[in-house]
From TrEMBL:
The keyword Transferase appears for this protein: yes
Enzyme class: transferase
Transmembrane feature ranges: none
EC number(s) stated in the UniProt entry for this protein: 2.6.1.-
InterPro entries xrefs: Aminotransferase_I/II_large, Aspartate_4-decarboxylase, AspAT/PAT-like, NHTrfase_class1_PyrdxlP-BS, PyrdxlP-dep_Trfase, PyrdxlP-dep_Trfase_major, PyrdxlP-dep_Trfase_small
Keywords carried by this UniProt record: Aminotransferase, Lyase, Pyridoxal phosphate, Transferase
Record-given protein name: Aminotransferase
Essential cofactor(s): pyridoxal 5'-phosphate
Protein family membership: Belongs to the class-I pyridoxal-phosphate-dependent aminotransferase family.
Pfam families registered for this protein in UniProt: Aminotran_1_2 (PF00155)
Residues in Aminotransferase class I/classII large domain copies: 181-520
One term of GO molecular function: aspartate 4-decarboxylase activity
SUPFAM superfamilies to which the protein is assigned, alphabetical: PLP-dependent transferases
């Protein structure tokens, strides 16, 4: 039998620690794959946030709707077997009803009937909405309006209103822009802030950490060069373990009016806990009392995985750019479905109106192909135009089929009034966390703020709390903080990410609880415990005799 793959030496590990955790993961995957081939065991990659679950009914409805759309197009006229007409809007709801009746009992049909009933209950013109969906699923036109199809936008806003907590604006008070996932939403937001001089190179931007690494990287990009003020999750429980919450002292950094923006993921990534009510209210107080122009960019993709969630967009809506992705909750990372929302009465527009005349003249030139009065363009309108470098504004927008699937996902959750799916998703994540902790041989106190989509384990904090101080000193003297990740990959075919790459504690490990089954997480826990015991044995073997 051959030995396990060689773990890089300390100097090599130190160099690799400078990489993004997602780039470091590729090195760990290579080590793990070597060991996997040696022992013919599956590689357990807990570094991926892509869920292994998905929502069935809205997908079934999407494909059934697509079949109806093509059927209705053929019925509208054909010039050859495959050259068919576009279906007419008039009477389309009745034709859909006939088609659904003929297919009662097939997957997705009952849900489509629920959708039509909901549309009717809103008092909307049912033909208009069904046609928007049918034309959308066919993908026969550019999106119009470019930001988002009218009814799809309202449905998305209603869904957000159902999950973002008390105080979230009504759908009629929101601008909604459908984007290619949360990644594009974040990029578009930063681009338009810089293009319109609402952020400038060298400005101070606060980032709540630990945080998804690309948000740190964006701030440091040449051309952005933002000065990052870290708002660290420094709060602890009574036993000294991390609560991953933010002390008043940390949040009060935001009272400095030279801080132009706050970047937040809520619930957090990787600790995966929602901001407690005190933190949410303190940030609202900061905006009211000290920093009324603060731009809040909040990414709330994990909000549905924890009860009692309240977004910053619900407490400071005029200040907030809300980024939301449908990828995690609906198991739809490959669909690339996201939205940016802002209120129609926003501090961003106030700031645009207050720009110096020289900036307004520059922006008039930029947007001159759209309007003779660029100053009248809202931040939301500029977002859409900037996403296509203005010149291609007329072809902006997420593809129509994607928008229809997004709307069906949103409607599925709105119609699930008993929250059956939400409870099942949360329970699945909770069982996986329990299995991991069982393998580790540790317990965590219940935390109602824990979403649990990820977990961040601080190995050094555990060592300091449970062993003689000499053990922690031994680790720091002899090993790099990410050594444990290389041992896991090389010896146990387990891939995890370094929490330090997310601006978390140096010796922390970030695990996704979304993409493996319970037995796998139990095995991961056992593997981490095995490596920890290996360190402990080395320390004991080298400790001076009394």
């Amino acid at each position: 039998m051959t030995d396990s793959p060689a773990i890089p030496d300390r100097a090599s590990i130190r160099r690799l620690e400078s990489l993004s955790p997602f780039e470091l993961r590729e090195r760990l995957l290579a080590l793990g794959s070597d060991e996997q081939r040696r022992v013919a065991k599956p590689l357990l990659n807990a570094g991926r946030g892509n869920p292994d679950f998905l929502t069935a009914a809205p997908r079934e409805a999407f494909f059934q709707l697509g079949l109806f759309a093509v059927h209705d197009a053929r019925a509208a006229g054909q010039w050859s077997a495959e050259l068919v007409a576009q279906p007419p809007a008039s009477g389309i709801a009745g034709r859909l009803d006939d088609w659904l009746t003929a297919r009662d009992g097939e997957p997705g049909i009952a849900f489509l009937r629920q959708v039509v009933a909901w549309i009717t209950a809103q008092g909307w013109n049912v033909d208009d909405v069904v046609y928007e969906f049918v034309d959308g699923v066919l993908g026969a036109h550019y999106p119009d309006p470019p930001a988002m199809l009218t009814h799809c936008a309202t449905i998305a806003a209603r869904y957000l209103g159902s999950i973002m907590g008390d105080g979230f604006p009504d759908a009629a008070d929101l601008d909604v822009f459908a984007t290619e996932g949360g990644t594009a939403a974040m990029r578009y937001s930063f681009d338009t802030l810089f293009i319109n001089a609402l952020l400038r190179p060298g400005d101070k931007v606060a980032i709540m950490t630990p945080v998804f690494t690309p948000y740190l990287d964006i701030a440091a990009l040449p051309g952005f060069d933002l000065e990052v003020v870290q708002i660290a999750a420094d709060a602890t429980f009574a036993d000294g373990t991390h609560s991953w919450q933010f002390s008043a002292q940390q949040l009060d950094k935001l009272r400095d009016p030279s801080i132009k923006a706050l970047v937040c993921i809520n619930p957090t990534n990787p600790p995966s806990v929602r901001l407690d009510d005190a933190a949410v209210e303190r940030i609202a107080d900061v905006v009211r009392e000290d920093n009324p122009g603060l731009i809040v960019i909040t990414d709330d993709v994990y909000g549905t995985f924890v009860e009692g969630f309240r977004s910053l967009s619900a407490v400071v809506p005029r200040n907030t750019i809300l980024v939301y992705s449908f990828s995690k909750y609906f198991g739809a990372t490959g669909w690339r479905l996201g939205v940016i929302t802002t209120t129609r009465d926003t501090v961003l527009d106030d700031a645009l109106r207050a720009l110096p005349d020289t900036e307004k003249e520059r922006l008039q030139q930029r947007y001159s192909s759209l309007t003779e009065d660029a100053a009248s363009l809202t931040f939301a309108q500029r977002l859409v135009a900037d996403s296509r470098d203005v010149a291609l504004n007329h072809t902006a927008g997420l593809s129509q089929p994607q928008q229809v699937q997004l709307a069906l996902f949103a409607l599925f959750d709105l119609l699930d009034t008993e929250r059956t799916y939400r409870a099942a998703a949360q329970a699945l994540i909770a069982r996986r966390l329990d299995a991991l902790l069982d393998g580790l041989g540790i317990t965590l106190d219940p935390d109602p703020l824990r979403a649990g989509y990820y977990i961040e384990l601080d190995f050094m904090a555990y060592a300091e709390a449970h062993y003689d101080a000499g053990f922690a000193a031994f680790l720091r003297t002899n090993y790099e903080p990410t050594d444990i990740l290389f041992r896991l990959a090389a010896q146990t075919e387990i891939v995890a990410l370094n929490g330090s790459g997310f601006d978390g504690p140096p010796w922390s490990i970030r695990l996704s609880l979304a993409n493996l089954d319970e037995n796998d997480y139990r095995a991961i826990g056992i593997g981490i415990r095995h490596v920890a015991e290996e360190y402990l044995a080395e320390w004991k073997a080298n400790a001076p005799r009394p």
